[in-house]
Amino acid sequence: MNKFYTEILLKLETAINELEIEADSSIQRIETIIHLIVECLSEVKEHILKSGFQNIDEEIHFFKHQKPIIVSKLIYYNAIYKIEAKKPYGAKPIRKYLNKELKKLKGFFDNNIDFYKYYRSNNSFLDERFFVRGKHDIKLWLDTIYFETDQSFSTSHDYKVAKIIANDLIQVYIENQLNTKNYNKISHESPLNWTGNKTALTELIYALYSLGVFENGNVDIKLISKTFERTFNIDLGDFYHTFMELKSRKINRTKFLDSLRDALIRKMDEQD
């Protein structure tokens, strides 16, 4: 299952990134991306229903960590599509509209704070109730949407996890819209500036993403890159293309990470 999932997720993310680079029309791009994600989910569902899981742990891992990553992309792009399609004209109406969208995200957080705590703390004592098919408990933060889903490919809380992941991305998108258009009067500029090159930072970001050090690995690479951009006042541009260049290096594909290791060891030796 892990090999199949890794390959199909990489295929999806590659297609999405290529579309985001090349497409001119934002709405048209999002429509195409949504179609790709739906197709991907259909392939994953077919594989799961055909092959099943080896054990309960594999099933929990899929519905807690793997499926939500793909579904979160669908939720995110669908939300962005609606935001862009309904966006009014004029600076003040747009600011009001975007802030209202942010309040919706906060409303979801407030209404699901107990599950947020469970999930963000990486708890597992209720995983068999939350992430195994047919084990739903209406007393445990159960949404009505569960009863409308195909329960052969859904658990009571895998969608809620996807929603949490997606909402993080939606929040970043909306805040970037507000900041880009100067709708916010308060400056949130970081006092730290990245003075290394962009390739080095991209290498670091992908290494952290690959190791899964943020939110137990349940976070999109875009959210990580946007957070680094805001924190260190840098525009990484086409970071996906930069990563492709890193992959194509003939010698020492982890040049910056190796230099970090060497610099730290030197500092430790100096202080011995």
Describe this structure in words.
The chain has 272 residues and is mainly α. It has two domains: 1-185, no CATH class; 189-272, no CATH class. It contains eleven helices and no strands. It has helices at 2-22, 26-51, 56-86, 91-111, 113-120, 127-130, 158-180, 198-211, 221-231, 239-247, 255-271. Helix 1 (2-22) runs antiparallel to helix 2 (26-51) and helix 8 crosses helix 9 (221-231). The longest helix has 31 residues, at 56-86. Residues 2-29 form a coiled coil. InterPro entries: Tet_reg_excision_RteC. This is RteC protein. It comes from Algoriella xinjiangensis.
Secondary-structure class = mainly alpha
Number of helices: 11
Question: Would you identify the regions where 5 or more consecutive residues have pLDDT less than 50?
Answer: 182-187
Strand-and-helix sequence, N→C? HHHHHHHHHHH
Sheet having the most strands: none
Radius of gyration: 20 Å
**Record field, number of beta strands:** 0
**Quick check: average pLDDT?**
86
User: Distance N terminus to C terminus?
Assistant: 47 Å
What oligomeric state do the depicted chains represent?
Answer: single chain
Number of domains: 2
Helix percentage range:
55-70%
Shape: globular
**Beta-strand percentage range:** under 5%
